[in-house]
């Protein structure tokens, strides 16, 4: 059975999953599903509001639900929130149901990308610059062993419009 191409983009906050997801989906004529956007659409709330009103546990359950909804979609790129691979059986499920691509970024790169928008990010809210850097380093250390289970790892500093070319041609074979 040819299930077509299904690629999960994973990586830490600020590593460019949504940004590159849009570019690559356009470039290869794939659909794009951004799991954070799906959660916002279906709940009618922002991510910060969900965390504030319902807590992280509820958010993680909705996140899992949206992930599993991608089961029957093909020729699609799925941009996952940074925590997706780290909860429930999500990572095993993605590895089984498609190809998983880890966008690997250094703590410095992430810091540059998220430091101006911590208010929108519940896990980074109200941290001073030093705390922010420490929190990124600690969380990345914790999560990276899981991220590295991906089928492919791409360094974010080297990404371009064609970065998925080889991966997609292998999947299509
Ligand atoms: C989170 C990452 C965010 C969002 C939520 C939690 C995380 O998504 O899902 O704030 O646990 O790393 P992005 O990685 O798209 O910023």
What small-molecule ligands were found?
Answer: shikimate-3-phosphate
Question: Helix and strand string, N-terminal first?
Answer: EHEHHEHEHHEH
How does the major sheet shape up?
A: 5 strands, parallel
Q: Tell how many strands the DSSP assignment holds.
A: 5
Q: What value does the average pLDDT take?
A: 95
**Residue runs with pLDDT of under 50 for 5 or more positions:** none
Strand neighbour order, sheet with most strands: 2-3-1-4-5
Report how far the terminal alpha carbons are from each other.
13 Å
Structural class: alpha/beta
- Tell me the β content: 5-15%
Give the overall shape. Answer: globular
Nearest-angstrom radius of gyration? 16 Å
Helical region count? 7
Fraction of helical residues: 40-55%
Task: Quickly list its features.
alpha/beta; 50% helix; binds shikimate-3-phosphate
């Amino acid at each position: 059975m040819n299930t077509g191409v299904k690629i999960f983009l994973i990586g830490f906050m600020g590593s460019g999953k949504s940004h590159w997801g849009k570019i690559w989906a356009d470039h290869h004529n794939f659909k794009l599903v951004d799991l954070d956007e799906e959660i916002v659409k279906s709940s009618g709330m922002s991510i910060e509001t969900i965390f504030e009103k319902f807590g992280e546990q509820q958010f993680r359950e909705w996140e899992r639900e949206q992930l599993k909804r991608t089961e029957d979609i093909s020729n699609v790129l799925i941009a996952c929130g940074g925590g997706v691979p780290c909860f429930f059986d999500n990572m095993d499920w993605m590895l089984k149901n498609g190809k998983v691509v880890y966008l690997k970024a250094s703590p410095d790169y992430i810091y540059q990308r998220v430091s101006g928008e911590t208010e929108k990010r519940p896990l980074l809210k109200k941290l001073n610059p030093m705390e922010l850097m420490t929190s990124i380093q600690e969380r990345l250390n914790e999560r990276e062993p899981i991220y590295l289970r991906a089928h492919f790892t791409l360094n974010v500093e080297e990404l371009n419009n064609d970065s998925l070319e080889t991966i997609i041609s292998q999947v299509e074979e």
